[in-house]
Structures are given as structure tokens and as C-alpha cells.
Write a structure and sequence with these properties.
Blueprint lengths: L2 H7 L22 H14 L5 E7 L1 E2 L11 E2 L6 H19 L4 E9 L7 H12 L3 E12 L6 H9 L2 E9 L3 H6 L6 H14 L3 E8 L6 H14 L3 E6 L21 H17 L3 E3 L3 E3 L4 H7 L4 E3 L2 E3 L6 E4 L4 E3 L3 E5 L3 H9 L5 E6 L2 H16 L1 E3 L6 H16 L3 E4 L2 E4 L7 H6 L3 H5 L12
Length: about 450
């Protein structure tokens, strides 16, 4: 490892699950009406390709302190019915806008904790949506689960409704780490859920891990990987912990002195990379590992790998509608995001108003930049020959020049290829293409650090 490079480039930059990043959206010139116009155009243009849905189920019974997701902590399950009613009402409003029955390619249930909801309510939600659409022959249903609150009955309902992919959050199996992040999860619970899912018929099992957590050690990661490899998941997401205490107040339970140094954090990634590679997992992008027969590995090999608000994915429908509090939608030329809290979301829908709070209409320059950033994040390379503005090309190359000198990438004419040394800094490199980021005040605490 080049320690000097980690010190130099460990700076706050976007994670680029979208471009522009949400803090850079032009919300002043966005309206819900403009969003719906772009939505309708996209649906008309891509109706045969189908659409996908992201449904945000925000409730959790307890707070995992490391988590930066939009969530609402409660043990009151009386919130389930009103929330399901609201999501189904929002979907009905979108159906009225689309004016014809859509072809549904996939649904992803995220959170929060989707399995906070009872099997009965999960069935009511999904049946209410699936019954109003044509379901594609290659439909993929995927769900994020917290093993300690996931039952056999819930998994059976999901599988009966076409769900085939399950992502189980594990993070770290060490009791000390679990205690400080307030996620006590015995390994037996994870084994139970994975075993149940496979017995029921789920075809793809993903395990989510996080490195760089407070009090985490090389030994705890080694033990965690040993437990995970015994389960033989098809895919492992190995996310770098994002320390953003100004955004996620739960992270104030510990201080930065409890976190591994930037050099240690990178060494934790490299150690896991070596262990997983020896066990026939292949690195995909900056934080995923997949077996050779996993669709994510095949998508990269065939040039179909994509990155969106859920991270790396094989599913790239031009139109993705987000339902639920804080959910983000993407229709290729525009983004929208719903009101973030369940209280706001429910209040707006009760007035029979689509709960869109903000969004961004992408310019032609945005769309061009988005392609370059996706190429870098998915394939570690891009070509600037599509940038017609010579001055803009020169600005980007000037921003990259220091990284070229540091051997993070090579520029051959207009082809840009990130070197293996540069892979950890792909977010920094992508940021050189981002005009919004480069206009931002450097003292604004907005993004997590890159390493």
C-alpha cells in the first residue's frame, strides 16, 4: 500500500450512486409537474423494456448506530397498516399518470427493515402492486433482511410472490463490534435465515458486511469472513463504513478514536480481498464480490453492469419508480425524491398529493457526465471523445494530471484507464468529472471520506 496516497486522497467525495449526487440537485428549478412530464416520456419511450420499483420500508425496532439510511425507530407495529395503505395509494397515483398497465421487471424492498412488516402486510403490499402490472418473465424480486427479525413465514410469502434474491445484513459477527454498533446478531440467526431461504427456494443469497467499524480488528474481520464463507453466499457486499455523524446522530455513540486509521481500514479491505479471492469470489466495482456464476459477475463480463441508488446491480431499467418515505425515482432524464420522514410522507398523501419533495432535471451535460462516472465506477475506465467541448476536456485532464503523476491512472489520447493502484481512489477520480462537486465549498461537511 502507498500510505502517502491514502493520506493525500482520503477526502470527502460523493459515493456516486447517482449523478449529480443528491446534495447537488437543482431543486430550485424542479417541480413535481416537471418530474411527471419526464416520467411519462420515459415510460412511453421504454414501455417495452419495462420498469422497476424500489419500495422503502423505513421502520426498525432498534437503531443500528453505524447506519446512514433513512429510518424510523419504533416498536409500535400499528404503523404497518397505514404505511402499506399509503404506498399502495402512491402506486395508484403513478398508474394514473402512466395511463397504461406497466411491464414490471423487478421490485427491491429496502429500508429500514423490510421484515419489520408482518408476512400478512408484505403479502398485501406486493399483491396489491403485482396485480396491477404485467409481470415480466425475467422478473426479479429482491429484499434486504435483518436476520433477527425475519421469519420463515415472511420468506415463504416473498418467495411465493416471485422473490428470488435475499440480502442479509451481517456487518461483523464479533460481539464487541456488534455491541458498539447496537446490532447484536448471533451467527445462529444468520445461519437460520440463510438456510430457511434456500429451503424455501431463494436462488441468490447476498451477505452485507462493513469494514472500518468502531472497535473492529483484523481478527474480527477474519472471523466474520470465516462464518460467512461457511454459508457460501453467491455475492458479498463489503462496504466501507461511512462516518457522517453530522447526518447520522447515532454515530455519535462513539468517537473517531474508536475507528481504524485510514491505512488500517484499507488494509482491512485488502485482507478481505485476498481471502475472498482465494475462495473463488471476484471483486466487482469498489465494494462487491461475486462467484463466477453470479449474475453480477456475468453482467460485468458482458458490459451490463450498472450502478444506481442501491449500489451495483444487473438491473438497468431506464425507469425506476421509488415508493415510500425518502424513496428516489430515476427516469433517465430526471430524479425525484419523496419526503423523508414517514410523518411527512403520510401527511402529503392524505391530501391526495404525490409525495415528491425535490428532484433534478438532467441537462445534456449531466447525461454525458453521468455516463463517464458510471464507466469509471463500474469498469475503471472511460473515453472522453464524447465530450465535444475542448475546454471542458482540458479542465478534466488538468484535474486528473496530479493523479496521473501519482500513477492512479493512465491517459492515452482520450482513453482513461484507472490502474490497480488507483482502484481505491475511483471516487476521487470520478469527482474530477463532476462540475457540481468542484464548485462546492470545501469546508461543507456533506460526503463521507473516500477510503
Amino acid at each position: 500500500m502507498r500510505q502517502d496516497l491514502f493520506q493525500k486522497y482520503d477526502k470527502p467525495v460523493p459515493r456516486y450512486t447517482s449523478f449529480p449526487a443528491v446534495p447537488h440537485w437543482d431543486v430550485a428549478n424542479f417541480t413535481a409537474q416537471s418530474w411527471l412530464q419526464h416520467l411519462k416520456k420515459s415510460f412511453s419511450k421504454y414501455s417495452e423494456e419495462g420498469i422497476s420499483l424500489y419500495i422503502h420500508l423505513p421502520y426498525c425496532e432498534r437503531l443500528c448506530t453505524y447506519c446512514g439510511c433513512n429510518k424510523h425507530i419504533t416498536t409500535n407495529h400499528a404503523v404497518e397498516d397505514p404505511y402499506i395503505d399509503a404506498v399502495l395509494h402512491e402506486w395508484k397515483m403513478y398508474l394514473e399518470v402512466l395511463e397504461s398497465k406497466p411491464l414490471l421487471r423487478g421490485i427491491h424492498l429496502g429500508g429500514g427493515t423490510p421484515t419489520f412488516f408482518s408476512a400478512k402486510n408484505l403479502e398485501r403490499l406486493l399483491s396489491g402492486i403485482l396485480s396491477t402490472a404485467y409481470v415480466s418473465a425475467d422478473f426479479e424480486g429482491s429484499v434486504e433482511v435483518h436476520p433477527t427479525v425475519t421469519s420463515f413465514e415472511q420468506l415463504a410469502v416473498l418467495h411465493n410472490l416471485g422473490f428470488s434474491r435475499l440480502s442479509a445484513g451481517v456487518q461483523d459477527t464479533d460481539p464487541v463490534v456488534q455491541f458498539i454498533i447496537n446490532r447484536v446478531q448471533p451467527n445462529e440467526e444468520t445461519i437460520r435465515v440463510v438456510t430457511d431461504a434456500r429451503n424455501i427456494g431463494f436462488q441468490q443469497i447476498n451477505i452485507d458486511l462493513v469494514y472500518g467499524l468502531p472497535l473492529q480488528t483484523f481478527q474480527s474481520i477474519q472471523n466474520t469472513l470465516k462464518h460467512v464463507l461457511e454459508l457460501s453466499p453467491d455475492r458479498i457486499a463489503y462496504y466501507g463504513y461511512a462516518h457522517v455523524p453530522w447526518k447520522s446522530k447515532g454515530q455519535r455513540r462513539y468517537s473517531e478514536t474508536d475507528l481504524p486509521s485510514v491505512e488500517t481500514k484499507r488494509a482491512m479491505y485488502l485482507m478481505a480481498n485476498e481471502i475472498l479471492t482465494k475462495n473463488d469470489y471476484h471483486a466487482i466495482g469498489m465494494d462487491h464480490f461475486a462467484k463466477p456464476d453470479d449474475p453480477l459477475f456475468l453482467a460485468r463480463a458482458e458490459g451490463r453492469l450498472h450502478r444506481n441508488f442501491m449500489g451495483y446491480t444487473t438491473q438497468n431499467t431506464p425507469l425506476m419508480i421509488g415508493l415510500g418515505a425518502s424513496a428516489i425515482s430515476d427516469c433517465e432524464t430526471a430524479y425525484s425524491q419523496n419526503y423523508k420522514t414517514p410523518k411527512e410522507y403520510l401527511a402529503i398523501l392524505s391530501q391526495k398529493i404525490l409525495p415528491v419533495e425535490k428532484g433534478h432535471i438532467l441537462s445534456q451535460e449531466d447525461l454525458q457526465t453521468k455516463k463517464h462516472i458510471l464507466n469509471l465506477m463500474c469498469y475503471y475506465q472511460t473515453c472522453t471523445n464524447t465530450i465535444e467541448d475542448k475546454e471542458q476536456r482540458n479542465i478534466i485532464q488538468n484535474r486528473l494530471s496530479e493523479m496521473v503523476a501519482d500513477e492512479l491512472l493512465v491517459i492515452d489520447n482520450q482513453d482513461i484507464k484507472i490502474s490497480p493502484i488507483g482502484h481505491p481512489f475511483v471516487r476521487n477520480i470520478a469527482a474530477c468529472f463532476d462540475p457540481y462537486f468542484n464548485k462546492q465549498a470545501n469546508d461543507t461537511p456533506t460526503f463521507s471520506k473516500s477510503i
